[in-house]
Amino acid sequence: MAEGERREKVMLLTDGYRILGEMKLGPDGAIWDFKHRSAEDFVTVFEAQCFRVSDGKRMYDATAMEICRRAVVAVFRQQDLAFVRKENS
Fold it and tell me: What are the backbone angles phi and psi of residue 85, rounded to the nearest 5°?
């Protein structure tokens, strides 16, 4: 992580995957990619773990991944979630 860079733990949902990881925060605390890169087609997730929605199986891990913005159905800050299931970790 770059010095001074702030990240937040998030969960993203797509039609096929649940992705746990971190996203960069802007100076105002907003998730950087959704506010300051809104014209770009992809968002970046760091330290990503990808689980298949259909059965919860952990499919991929990546230090950084780019996800098509149009594929993202929902984004949650993990601190706002009541729980996160950890199947097949």
Answer: -65, 140
Tokens (6 digits) for 81: 């979630």
Q: Considering only CA atoms, which of 50, 43, 56, 59 is closest in space to residue 21? A: 50
Who wins on pLDDT, 31 or 14? 14
Give residue 59's region: left, alpha or beta (phi > 0; psi -120 to 50): alpha
Q: What is the pTM of this model?
A: 0.83
Mean pLDDT over residues 40-52, rounded? 95
Residue 87 in any domain: the answer is no
Domains in the chain: how many in total?
A: 1
How does DSSP classify residue 31? Answer: B
Beta-carbon neighbour count of residue 31 at 10 Å?
18
